[in-house]
Amino acid sequence: MIRKDFEIKNDMGLHARAAALFVQTTNKFASDIFVEKDNARVNAKSVMGVMALGISKNSKITIIVNGIDEEEAMEELSNLIGVKLINL
Question: Taking the model in full, what pTM does it have?
Fold first, then answer.
């Protein structure tokens, strides 16, 4: 299992389009993936779950990945959050 903390820098946070891209990315992997914010944990493969967290700019989240491709998944999600979502 891998856990990693992030601070969301996208001006609009994980709004609908960014959340959809995030969930689309998580669904490429067999591993179980969760997002935590303020002691709430949701399945990162669910758009409704991710949107329910209300992740805005400067929110601190934790991503938890557990499974056979966890390292690949965390690497791709780290890149997504750190580079691609900033420009959405």
Answer: 0.91
| Domain 2-87 of CATH type 3.40.50.620 | no
Q: To which residue do tokens 């690497």 refer?
A: 75
SS (H, E, C) the chain: CEEEEEECCCCCCCCHHHHHHHHHHHCCCCCEEEEEECCEEEECCCHHHHHHCCCCCCCEEEEEEECCCHHHHHHHHHHHHHHHHHHC
Q: Which two tokens stand for residue 42?
A: 């949701």
- Domain residue extents for the chain: 2-87
**What local confidence, expressed as pLDDT, does residue 15 receive?**
84
Catalytically active residues are 15
Contact 11, 57 (CB under 8 A): yes
